[in-house]
Specification:
heterodimer, A: about 375 residues, 13 helices, 4 strands, about 55% helix, B: alpha/beta, Rossmann fold, six-stranded mixed sheet, four-stranded antiparallel sheet, 13 strands, about 30% helix, elongated, disordered N terminus
Chain lengths: ~375, ~325
Amino acid sequence: MSDPVTSSAAAISPETPPPPTAPRTAPGPDASDEHLSPLRELILSRIRGFLREPEALFWTFGFPIIMAIGLGLAFRDNPGERAVVGVERGSAAERWTAALRASPDVDVRVLDPAAAALALRKGTVGVLLAGTGRLVYRYDPARPESRLARLTADAVVQKAGGATRPVAAADDRSRRPGGRYIDWVIPGLIGLNLMSTGMWGIGFGIVQARQRKQLKRLVSTPMRKRDFMLAQVLARLVFIGLEVPPIVLFAWLAFGVHVAGSLPALSAVVVLGAMTFAGMGLLCAARARTMEGISGILNVVMLPMFVLSGVFFSAARYPDAVQPFIRALPLTALNDALRAVYNDGLPLSAAAVPLAILAAWGVASFAAALKAFRWQ
Amino acid sequence: MRTLQTPSPESPPAHGDAPAIRCRGLHKRFGDTVAVKSLDLEVRRGECFGLLGPNGAGKTTTIEVLEGLQERDGGELEVLGMRWDRDASAIRARLGVQLQESEFYDKSTVEEAVRMFRSFYPRGPRVDALIGFVQLDEKRRTQVKNLSGGQRQRLSVACALAGAPDVLFLDEPTTGLDPQSRRQLWDVCEAFRAGGGTILLTTHFMDEAEHLSDRIAILDRGEIIAQGTPAELIRALGGDHVVEFASTAQIEDDALSALPGVSRVGSRGESRLLTVAALHTAVPALLDLVAARGGDLTALSTHHATLDDVFLALTGRGLRDE
């Protein structure tokens, strides 16, 4: 900024002009050194646009924390995770009730036949012990907790019946920090958040500016198109500075989730992820003219990653045949890299492949967006 | 580092003598609809040229083709002696564009908007000078959404002037503004002209075209149907005055044409319109004619001929008719 005193914006008279109709001359070019960087102004404009929309702020910062609270409560490590075992009243199973009650791993419910059938169907008991002559385990093998309850109940019953274990083994039940579900899911939530806020934010922002002819006005100036696109991506870096630390902090304070690796490494992954999804947001919004259009595109692009990319459960669960495809998705790559640093404490070099995949998506999207972009 | 160029008010010598805008046979279609039909236009340096026409005449399409915002389908076009296909960014640096619709983010302030537009140009006035020029000093920290329509249009002009342009394009700049706001905007335009700037303006207000423009092209259905200074266009009607009347008697056109000094006979709705050279001879003769036919006058008014009368004479429709 130049000193206003030395400026030579002299085309305008310094006196207050007499009311509205005084003829003046247009201000001419100014020789003073008022340098304004278009990139900086475009970034500032984008940031202001975001910070002055209270709703956008809420969804960006509130949503991941609400999600973390919800998941943290649902999957909290309640001591023991006891198997819920139903015993049908009047059946052959009733004689094992006392042994089951004595076991710390079992929560026993003695139920009338009708109530027992209902409880089994609703999943409030994992397994139902019934049978008239012989003991019968009724359960749905498709439910993991049912299979677990059956094994637990069977172990208790067999032991009470006098069975001895052919192989001697001891349990070591000490907790491994970083191995809980919540430890695993937090990096996934950060990845999900980087994807969705980046793509929704940029996608909607661009389409709105296109509808309001703001893009048309910009393109009628000598502004470089690249500067505009780059500003959208770089502004994201400011937002993630506000967006990600609260999640990390909250996860640590509320659930004791620690970052095993280094914070600079984590930041680097987050920055790359944010820029990649900003580029993808630009590409998705490159030609859309309506809010309905952009919503459809974003849903089609993001939904598969939401399901496949290992946000809430491991992507390794999908068949081997589709693994190469899943691994190539940008959100899978981001989540893998985040978990390598966050959970496993590995250096960036250990996540070179996912980071390269991520960067490739970002660069390709940005270049394609720059080519395909519709300015009006 | 930006290289600091010495600001020179003169255009580069190569294009120094070229007209601001010159086009020949300009053509633009949207699907099957022809929006602009073989348009010839020359806007000289330093003049204000008005494109006057009703809504849907093709004014916005024309101006957007000239601004390089829409591709033309045929014809030749030079802006400041340069061509869009070769020199797009050089042209853009020397044009100021104001669009018809909203152009700003609602929640940016006047100063932020002007500053951003100023940053796109290699040279131009200071941000505070631009804001002062359109008299928004007191509103510099006000967000766009809290500006009045007139203030918003002046902000738009300030942004269009951010690169100290040679040519300023204004598309319907005062539509929807109250009389005082229109006046203020006109003042800004005149001040820009006073500094040697060229303006190309579209409007459907004949008073605006008449007030601001040195020359006018009247546009109807994508074609220029008349071109000249406001005085020339009105003179072409053949008389300075227009008599508008309605009567209960049926009077054929020939009888009206035969009245002294009548150069044109037309009608608008129920009313008949006579273009006359002198009121003091034409009006008494008209009254006599009506009386002779045994009719009563139900309406009679006279006014100085305007561009609206020119448009009506050329198309049979008023500028403001749908």
